[in-house]
Specification:
heterodimer, A: alpha/beta, eight-stranded mixed beta sheet, six-stranded antiparallel beta sheet, 14 helices, B: mainly alpha, 0% strand, globular, disordered N terminus
C-alpha cells in the first residue's frame, strides 16, 4: 500500500529545465512546489569538476549521465506489421536522468522556430494548396503563434545568457545574423562565440555559393554573464566537452548554472531524487488529478497529493505517464482517433565530411560554436517545384575533437580497420571537419506511441511502444538539403569530401539525435490534441504537460529554445490566469 | 557509478571468478570505487576476466585491427587487451544498465541488439567459436597462432558475417570487438589502454585540456603543448597503492 503524504500546491514530475523554470515561477507566486526526479542530485561542485568530467569513455561512450534502459526503456518497430522489441541499450537518442535533465549534457545549440512553423498546416495550404500535404501527414497548427511566444523566447534567452548575432530586430534585418528568423524585440544578451578555423572556411564558402551564413546562437557564454535572477556564469574556455558532458566552468546554460542557486534556498520549494513517478492519480470523475504515485529507490510506494500536477519529464516519458494514467484517449492509427501518443515525430540528419589541407585543431570548440545557413529551412524557399514539405539548416559545428566518437572520419575508400585506416586517421584527424544538416520530420498517421503488450519496466508497468519510420517526404527533403551542404563543402576547397545521406529505414541505433517530439500534441482542437495552447490537458484541467512532447510536428531546428519559451508562456498563463481561477483556460 | 555494494561484488565474483575476490579485499582495504568505469589507477597486467588463451586471441586480433607500424604502437602495444578485459569485468561487461528481460526474439537490423548475451559473454562465446573455426580450417591451430594474412581473412569473415560461429552471430562479435578496440586505443589512459598516449599522439589530440581561449583563433597553427590525460602527463597507470 502506498504511504499517503502531505499535500502540496504543485507537484512537478521531473527536475530538468522545464521543472526548474516552473518551480522558480510558481514559488515566486507563493505556491508550495515539490519536484520529483527519477535520477540523482548533482551540481557543478563536486559532480562536474573539470578534473574528471572530460572523460569521453565514461560520459559519451558509456552514457554516464543518461537513463538506464534496465530501469526504463521503450520498444520499437518501424511499422505496425512488425513486433516491437526493446531498445536494450541507448542508441538513436539518449534521454537524461538526474537533476538538470538534458540541460546538463546538451550542446547548447539554441534556436527559435520560424513564424510559419507554428501555423504549419494553414500556411502550407494557403501557399501551395490543400493537396500539397500528403493524405497521411497529420501536421497541424500549434494554437500559439510566434508573436505570442516572442516575449518568452526573449525571457529564455536572457535566462541562459545566449551568445549570438540577431538577424531581425523589430523587423529590421541585421547584417551578419540569420535574415530568415522572426522579428525579435532585442538582440542576444551576449555577442557570438569566437570562431574556429573550420567555421571561418564554411562562412567564406557559403557566401561564395550565394548563401547568407551567420553564427549559431549558443547557450555557451562568450563572456561572463549575470542573468535576471542574479545568477552568474563564466566565460567559455572552448575545451570541447559539451555534449554528453556537464560543464565544470559555469559556461553552459543549465538549471544548475541559471536557476537552482536562487531556487534551492526557497522555503516553499523541495525536491525528491531517485523517485520515479508511475501514475498521475485521478478522482472518480476522471476529470481531476488528485496527485501522483511514485516509487523510491527502496521500492516503497508513496502517494503525493497535489492541487496541480505538471509533467516535466522527457518527451516520451510524459506520454508514457499519460497513457499509464488514462489521461486523454489513446491514439488508434486504424481509426485515426484518439490523441494520447498521436503525432510522434523526430528529426532527420545527415552530414558531409570535408578533408582539408590545413590544420583545423578540431579539439578546440564549444557545443554551439557553429556557423549556419537557413536558406533551406521551414518555408524559407519555394517548395512548389520540390514536392516535399519542411526543410533544415546546414551548419558547420566545431563542438570538439574527442577521438573515440567525435573525429570526422576518414576519406572515401579508406579501409575500415588495419594499417590503411590507421594511416588515414593520422593524416586526417587534425585536417577535417563536418557539415551537418538538421531536418524537420512531419507527423504521420502511422507514427505514434502506445503501451507495449509484452514488455514491462522495472516497476512492472508496460513499456512505451514506438512505431516510427522515415517517410518519402523526409528522405526527399534530406537529400535536397544534403546536396546543398555538399555545394558549400566543395566551395571550402577540400582535398576531398564524403557525403553521408540519410537513407533507408529509421533505426534505433546508432546515435542520431535526442530530439523526440509529440505524443501529447498541443492545438486548438481537443480531437487532435492532448493539451490546449497553454499546455493544459483538455480532459484534466489541473494537469499541464511541458517539453517537446507537445510539439505537433518537429521543425528543422534544435528544440530546446522553443521548449524554454513554451515553459515561460505556460508559467505566465498559470500565474496570471489559472491560479486566479483554476479550471479550463480554453473552452473545448 | 555509485560506490561498490555487496550485491555488485557477488555479481562480479560470479562472472570473473577469483580475480574479483582480490578486488573485494582491495575494496575493504579502502578502495571504495571498484568499477572500471570510475577514474582510478589500475595495475596493468592484473587481468580480471580473460583467460590466458583469450588474452592471446585478443592480442592477436587487435594487432590486426590497429597494427604497430612506422607511425607508432598498435592496439596491443597500447594496452587495448587489458582495457577490454577491465571493461568486461565491470558494469559494461555485465550489461548492467541494459534492458535484459525477455522474451528474446531476433529483430530487424533497425531494432538493434537483441542477444541474450552480455558483452562479456559475447566475447567468451565469440572467441571460442572463432578458435573452433580456425582449428577446423587451419590444421588445428587457434586464431592466435595463425599468420597475419590468415588472421585478417578471418576478421573480414567475421565482419561480413560469412563465418558461422556456434553460440553467437559473428558480425555482432566483430562489431563489439572493433568498437572496444577503438575505445581502448583512444580512451583516457587511466582505463588501461592508450598507453603513453599512443592513440592520441597518432592523431594529434592533446588530451582533455581546459582552456583554448588564446589559441582557438590562431588559425592553421599547430597546438604545441604536451599531451595530458585526466591523471596528468604520465597519463597512465600507477600501482594500486
Amino acid at each position: 500500500m502506498a504511504t499517503r503524504l502531505k499535500s502540496v500546491d504543485a507537484v512537478l514530475v521531473g527536475f530538468g529545465w522545464t521543472a526548474s523554470i516552473l518551480a522558480q515561477e510558481l514559488t515566486d507566486a507563493g505556491l508550495q512546489v515539490l519536484a520529483i526526479e527519477r535520477g540523482k542530485f548533482r551540481d557543478t561542485v563536486p559532480d562536474f569538476a573539470t578534473t574528471h568530467i572530460q572523460d569521453e569513455l565514461k560520459y559519451a561512450v558509456r552514457n554516464g549521465l543518461f537513463e538506464e534502459p534496465a530501469r526504463e526503456t521503450l520498444t520499437f518497430r518501424n511499422s505496425t506489421d512488425q513486433t516491437a522489441l526493446p531498445m536494450r541499450h541507448l542508441g538513436s537518442f539518449r534521454p537524461a536522468a538526474g537533476v538538470g535533465g538534458a540541460g546538463i549534457h546538451w550542446n547548447g545549440q539554441n534556436w527559435r522556430f520560424l513564424p510559419t512553423d507554428f501555423k504549419a498546416r494553414t500556411h502550407i495550404e494557403q501557399r501551395y494548396g490543400r493537396k500539397f500535404i500528403p493524405e497521411d501527414m497529420t501536421i497541424q497548427d500549434w494554437g500559439v503563434s510566434y508573436d505570442d511566444l516572442e516575449p518568452y523566447y526573449d525571457q529564455w534567452e536572457y535566462l541562459c545568457g545566449i551568445s549570438g548575432q540577431a538577424g531581425n530586430v523589430q523587423g529590421r534585418i541585421q547584417p551578419g545574423g540569420n535574415p530568415f528568423e522572426g522579428p525579435r524585440a532585442r538582440g542576444y544578451p551576449l555577442p557570438p562565440l569566437k570562431r574556429s578555423y573550420a567555421t571561418v572556411l564554411f562562412d567564406e564558402a557559403a557566401k561564395q555559393v550565394g548563401f547568407k551564413p551567420f553564427p549559431c546562437a549558443a547557450a555557451n557564454t562568450s563572456q561572463p554573464y549575470k542573468n535576471p535572477y542574479g545568477v552568474q556564469m563564466g566565460q567559455c574556455t572552448y575545451c570541447g566537452y559539451c555534449e554528453w558532458f556537464a560543464c565544470g566552468n559555469y559556461s553552459k546554460s543549465s538549471p544548475q548554472t541559471t536557476i537552482l542557486p536562487v531556487l534551492l534556498p526557497k522555503d516553499n520549494f523541495s525536491y525528491r531524487t531517485n523517485c520515479e513517478v508511475t501514475r498521475v492519480n485521478l478522482d472518480s470523475t476522471g476529470k481531476r488529478a488528485t496527485g501522483v504515485t511514485y516509487v523510491d529507490v527502496q521500492g516503497r510506494e508513496f502517494e503525493q497529493p497535489a492541487e496541480l500536477v505538471i509533467l516535466c519529464a522527457y518527451a516520451q516519458h510524459n506520454v508514457h505517464l499519460l497513457l499509464l494514467s488514462g489521461i486523454g484517449r489513446p491514439y488508434d492509427p486504424k481509426t485515426n482517433e484518439g490523441v494520447t501518443g498521436r503525432n510522434y515525430a523526430y528529426q532527420i540528419t545527415s552530414s558531409v565530411n570535408v578533408f582539408l589541407n590545413e590544420n583545423m585543431n578540431p579539439f578546440m570548440g564549444a557545443g554551439a560554436l557553429g556557423q549556419a545557413v537557413d536558406e533551406f529551412n521551414g518555408d524559407n524557399f519555394d517548395h512548389g517545384p520540390q514536392g516535399f514539405v519542411g526543410g533544415g539548416y546546414i551548419a558547420l559545428w566545431t563542438t570538439g575533437g574527442r577521438p573515440i566518437l567525435q573525429q570526422h572520419g576518414v576519406p572515401e575508400g579508406t579501409p575500415k580497420w588495419g594499417a590503411g585506416w590507421k594511416k588515414a586517421m593520422h593524416e586526417n584527424y587534425l585536417k577535417s571537419a563536418s557539415l551537418a544538416t538538421h531536418g524537420s520530420v512531419m507527423s504521420y498517421r502511422d507514427s505514434y506511441l502506445d503501451l507495449d503488450p509484452t514488455y514491462r519496466d522495472a516497476y512492472g508497468n508496460p513499456l512505451l511502444r514506438l512505431t516510427f519510420d522515415f517517410h518519402d517526404n523526409e528522405r526527399k527533403m534530406s537529400k535536397f538539403v544534403t546536396d546543398k551542404a555538399a555545394l558549400i563543402a566543395k566551395a571550402m576547397k577540400p582535398r576531398s569530401i564524403k557525403v553521408n545521406y540519410r537513407e533507408g529505414h529509421y533505426s534505433i541505433l546508432p546515435y542520431e539525435t535526442t530530439h523526440n517530439t509529440g505524443g501529447a500534441a498541443m492545438g486548438n482542437d481537443p480531437k487532435t490534441s492532448v493539451v490546449n495552447r497553454y499546455l493544459q490537458c483538455w480532459d484534466v484541467s489541473n494537469v499541464f504537460v511541458m517539453g517537446a512532447s507537445v510539439f505537433p510536428q518537429n521543425p528543422g531546428y534544435n528544440p530546446t529554445g522553443t521548449v524554454g519559451a513554451l515553459t515561460y508562456w505556460a508559467a505566465d498563463a498559470l500565474r496570471t490566469k489559472y491560479l486566479k481561477n483554476p479550471g479550463p483556460l480554453v473552452q473545448a | 557509478m555509485s560506490k561498490i555494494t555487496r550485491r555488485d561484488m557477488l555479481r562480479t565474483t560470479a562472472v570473473a571468478g577469483s580475480a574479483a575476490i582480490v578486488s573485494w579485499f582491495g575494496a575493504r582495504a579502502g578502495i571504495t570505487e571498484a568499477d572500471p568505469l570510475d577514474p582510478r589507477p589500475v595495475a596493468s597486467g592484473t587481468f580480471s576476466y580473460f583467460t590466458v588463451p583469450e588474452i592471446a586471441f585478443i592480442d592477436a586480433a587487435v594487432s590486426r585491427l590497429i597494427p604497430a607500424d612506422e607511425l607508432g604502437p598498435g592496439a596491443k602495444e597500447a594496452g587495448v587487451t587489458f582495457f577490454i578485459d577491465q571493461q568486461l569485468a565491470g558494469s559494461f561487461g555485465r550489461a548492467e544498465t541494459w534492458y535484459m528481460q525477455g522474451p528474446w526474439k531476433e529483430g530487424t537490423p533497425q531494432q538493434g541488439y537483441q542477444l541474450k548475451l552480455t558483452p562479456a559473454q559475447l566475447y567468451r562465446v565469440g572467441i571460442q567459436g572463432t578458435d573452433e573455426y580456425c582449428r577446423r580450417t587451419f590444421n588445428a591451430k587457434p586464431f592466435a597462432e595463425l599468420g597475419a594474412a590468415d588472421q585478417e581473412k578471418i576478421l573480414h569473415g567475421l565482419e561480413k558475417g560469412e563465418i558461422e560461429l556456434a553460440g553467437a552471430p559473428a558480425k555482432e562479435f566483430f562489431d563489439l570487438l572493433w568498437q572496444n578496440t577503438g575505445e581502448g586505443f583512444f580512451a583516457d589512459p587511466m582505463y588501461g589502454g592508450n598507453r603513453d598516449f599512443a592513440g592520441w599522439k597518432l592523431v594529434g589530440f592533446p588530451g582533455p585540456r581546459y582552456n583554448y581561449v588564446n589559441e582557438i583563433e590562431q588559425y592553421g597553427k599547430p597546438y604545441t603543448l604536451p599531451t595530458v590525460g585526466l591523471m596528468g602527463r604520465n597519463g597512465s597507470v600507477v600501482g594500486r597503492g
